[in-house]
Amino acid sequence: MAGVTVVGSGAWGTSLALLLARQGEQVRLWSWQAQHAQAMAEQRENHEFFPGFPLHERVTPCHGTEGFAECDLVVLVVPSHAMRATLEQLKASLPKSAALVSATKGIENDSLMLMSEVIEDVLGEAVRPRAAFLSGPSFAKEVAQQMPTNVVVAGTDEARVEAVQRRFATERFRVYASDDPVGVEVGGALKNVIAIAAGACDGLGFGHNTRAALITRGLAEISRIAIAKGGNPLTLSGLAGMGDLVLTCTGELSRNRTVGFELGRGRSLDDVVQNLGAVAEGVKTARSAYFLAQRLGVELPICNEVYRVLYENKPPRQAVHDVLTRPLKKELD
């Protein structure tokens, strides 16, 4: 096998680099910051974004584009708002035959594109058969600790998807295959918005009844967007939908839940984000979801209220009240 380049050296990118290196892969871990790449190379650890996990001997931190030509697998793990700029920077160096796996969860703000659409917009439609999308309930720390984890990888080319599936799968990291990239991507993106709402309800002191209802109704909203984008609603009952949603809404390691929790306790968004020390994708995706729903004519009561709390300074308690006092309706309409 040729080598692997993981583009993005945050917690999730570093965790996936460790996973692949333990599989015997030679992995280049690319950082957009030369100083960060140098620090990782010297310290043999990602102290800035993923401390406590020494880099495997087969992981080589890097910043430049040398070495891309030897890779037959490129894993994209940059924040959604940086995906386009990163691809523009690297596209001349990306191998024309390498598989591309996006492990980024989000929707681009200005274009309202999924990551698959951004990738095709920058690299061209010919990249579609080579592209796959990895998602599911998977905290980076627990994957690095080799705790049993199940994820899904989706793409349009069955053979390519199965090849990626085999390459990532380990005894502790089980990978399922899917032919529904849209459903997998929508689930991975919008669960972060619902997690902010779940955290806010916890911060307000509400109970388990509230959280269960929020997760269930949140899944209905995610499914509406997926269907409107051409995805399969059954995908949202799986790992990329319900699985990731439950994890992100309930797990203490969830950055998006943490943002909501602190907002529910009365802190400002600027203060919360400044002290978070990492990207919470749901903050930007809430804006995308709000405007995408309008474009598609889809009703998203919870996501819309998250947007108003984040971008219109609406009090979280008032947002909860407004969701609960909407006109009554049938559950499955």
**SS summary, helix count:** 14
Euclidean distance between termini CA atoms: 50 Å
Q: How many strand segments?
A: 10
Give me the side-by-side strand order of the main sheet: 5-2-1-6-7-8-9-10
| Helical residues, percent | 40-55%
Helix/sheet category: alpha/beta
* Proportion in β-strands: 5-15%
Query: Looking at the structure, what is the overall shape?
Result: globular
Rg, alpha carbons:
19 Å
User: Which stretches are poorly predicted, pLDDT < 50 over at least 5 residues?
Assistant: none
Largest sheet: 8 strands, mixed
Order of helices and strands: EHEHEEEEHEHEHEHEHHHHHHHH
- Global mean pLDDT: 96
How would the blueprint of this fold be written?
Layout: E1 3-7, H1 11-22, E2 27-30, H2 34-43, E3 45-46, E4 50-54, E5 59-62, E6 71-76, H3 83-90, E7 99-102, H4 115-123, E8 131-135, H5 140-144, E9 149-155, H6 158-168, E10 173-178, H7 181-203, H8 208-228, H9 239-250, H10 255-264, H11 269-276, H12 281-296, H13 301-311, H14 316-324
Parallel strand pairs: 1-2, 1-6, 2-5, 6-7, 7-8, 9-10
Antiparallel strand pairs: 3-4, 8-9
Helix pairs in contact: 3-4, 7-8, 7-9, 7-10, 7-12, 7-13, 8-9, 10-11, 12-13, 13-14
Structure description:
- This protein is of the alpha/beta class and 333 residues long.
- It contains 14 helices and 10 strands.
- It has helices at 11-22, 34-43, 83-90, 115-123, 140-144, 158-168, 181-203, 208-228, 239-250, 255-264, 269-276, 281-296, 301-311, 316-324, and strands spanning 3-7, 27-30, 45-46, 50-54, 59-62, 71-76, 99-102, 131-135, 149-155, 173-178.
- The strands form 2 sheets. An 8-stranded mixed β-sheet has the order 5-2-1-6-7-8-9-10, with helices on both faces.
- Strand 6 (71-76), helix 3 (83-90) and strand 7 form a beta-alpha-beta unit.
- It is globular.
- 50% of the residues are buried.
- The model has no long low-confidence stretch (mean pLDDT 96).
